[in-house]
Amino acid sequence: MTITTTPPRTRSPWSGVASAAESERWLAVAQSVADELAKDAVARDRANTPPVEQLALLRESGLANLLVPAQAGGHGGHWETAFGVARVLARADASIAQILGYHYLNQACVVFYGTDPARQAEWLRRSAEGSWVWSDSFNPVSPDLAFTADGDGYRLSGVKRFATGASVADVIIAGAVAEGGALDGRLVVFAIEGDRPGIEHPGDWDNVGYRASASGSVRYTDVAVSPDDIIGVDEDEPFSSVVTPGVQLLFGNIYLGIAEGALAQARELTRARPGSWFLSGVDRYSDDPVTHRLFGELVARTVAVEALADRLNRRYDEAVALGAATTSDDRAALEIAVAQLKVIATEVGLDVSSRVFEATGASSTRAAVGLDRHWRDIRTHSLHDPVDYKKIEVGAHYLNGTIQPVSLYT
User: Which pathway, metabolic or otherwise, does it act in (predicted)?
Assistant: First the structure.
């Protein structure tokens, strides 16, 4: 008789799944924050305003500490709740939703890459005490950073583009291959405050969408990095790389939230729209069967994406609970499932945020209305990594069982 045992669950502070009470509490908080963001979202988008006050709102609401375990001073929430919170915020302001979602994943790097339980607990405790918002400058397509030994520590130089939230956040996560020192040749992951001497934020973010996300560059010039700043080393093991499906799952939820936000605003505009098309045979656009057909199609497709996202949000809690017991097969199965969501959320989000104008009419294209913001946001962010390669990822696995190489995109 073969006796099988369950591998010990180590390194992960997360276990179980979200209760109904947890979800209800934090989604209500998220809705309150979203309502506040919505008051001036259009104006902030047009002004390309750095989201300083909006990050303060995330701290004050408790959302910044949602995933920090209770024993470390946080709220002990689950990933299912966190992804749901990001989705709620994305309906009102995708830029702030992105910053918060990245915060959760960057903060979690102390778990994914940190192997010392005491150090992990200390990072989380300090983060909770300060209600830190975490950002990153991990963009793999930017030139690599120079990370050169200097005594017991290192000196960091170089530029990273698309560092969402870095100019306004408390902490920046980054990674670089060490040159010299005790960690020579290894990919080191570290965290430093965003205003440390030698760090500059050029303020060069002026894109068509995501305008309030502070996604500009970070320039490092001879920045001191001490051993205390180092979270860990990328050991190329399955658990640490689970962070990447988490990033892609966040994208899927935000694209879904953008579609929901576009539909909600289009519904209000359509119901308030006077008159009707002269061939429709009805008195108002909201009674036109053509309008009903359009909304019926867009709503049904959006709800289908919601069902898949909800399922995967809970599955991610199950995945991270495995901790160091995570296998390559566990990680691969999660990657493929999330890639499926990424494909459909991207396509539905782009389609919904564009086609709602067919119901709302020419008057809804006025800049003051801001309906275009939903499409501009998803069009900008959906170019983060080509969705065609996600389709290839899913198709190759379906046909041949192929798994793409592990990377910061897969």
Answer: Sulfur metabolism; dibenzothiophene degradation
End-to-end Cα distance, the chain: 39
**Residue-wise over 325-358: b if at least 16 C-beta within 10 A, else e?**
bbeeebbbbbbbbbbbbbbbbbbbbbbbbebbbe
From residue 77, how far is each of 60, 72, 339, 390 by CA, in Å? 16, 12, 25, 30
Q: Which of 76, 103, 89 is nearest to 38 (CA)?
A: 89
Residue-wise pLDDT for 210-257, tens only, equals 999 999 999 999 999 999 999 999 988 999 999 999 999 999 999 999
Distance between CA atoms of residues 17 and 23, nearest Å: 10
Cβ-proximal residues to 69 (8 Å cutoff; 6+ apart), any chain: 13, 14, 76, 124
Q: Which CATH class is domain 240-400?
A: mainly alpha
Contact assessment for residue 251 and residue 345, using Cβ atoms and an 8 Å cutoff: yes
CATH number among 3.40.50.2300, 2.40.30.170, 2.40.110.10, 1.20.1050.80, domain 137-233: 2.40.110.10
Helix (H, G, I), strand (E, B) or coil at 403: coil
* Domain boundary assignment for the chain: 20-135, 137-233, 240-400
* Cβ atoms of residues 160 and 142 within 8 Å: yes
Dist CA 319 CA 192 (whole Å): 28
Residue pair 257/210 in contact by the 8 Å Cβ criterion:
no
Give this prediction's pTM.
0.95
Taking only the tens place, the pLDDT of each residue in 287-318 is: 999 999 999 999 999 999 999 999 999 999 99
- Looking at domain 20-135, its CATH class is mainly alpha
Task: Give the span between the Cα atoms of 365 and 29, in whole angstroms.
Answer: 31
| 171-179/153-160 β-pairing | unpaired
